[in-house]
Design brief:
Keywords: Membrane, Transmembrane, Transmembrane helix. This is Low affinity Fe/Cu permease. It comes from Hydrogenophaga laconesensis. By secondary structure, this protein is mainly alpha-helical. It folds into 2 domains: 90 residues, no CATH class; 36 residues. 73% of the residues lie in helices and 0% in strands. It is built from 4 helices and no strands. Helix 1 packs across helix 3. The longest helix has 43 residues. The radius of gyration is 25 Å and the shape is elongated.
Amino acid sequence: MPKSTNRYSQFAKAASRFCGRPRVFTLAVALIVVWLVTGPLFGFSDTWQLVINTGTTIVTFLMVFLIQNTQNRDTEAIQVKLDELIRATQGAHTALLDLEELEEEELDAFRRRYENLAAEARARLQRGGSDTDIPDA
């Protein structure tokens, strides 16, 4: 992994952890309260409004990238864990290991197959059967 990507990833993790803390939320609320209280002092001027608009826009813009980085990393980790569970489960279909890489049409075909399996299992349950191929404990 290139050094710059690693540094960004480390920064994104640290910033995400920091920004997700209750104290940071409290600080953000406090800043908004201070801004509201200073409204009358500045006559609710355009500049007064521009300060909060600019500040929140910049923070939102930057947080989108941090959140996306964190979400991508979490999703990849979950996919690897799920892939390992599929791989390690005897009788599991290993063709399912990288579904997230398939085109939408291929993924839809898999989803339809599993929807049909679920419908068949519900029908078996209604007839008093089992919804698994494993005997009850």
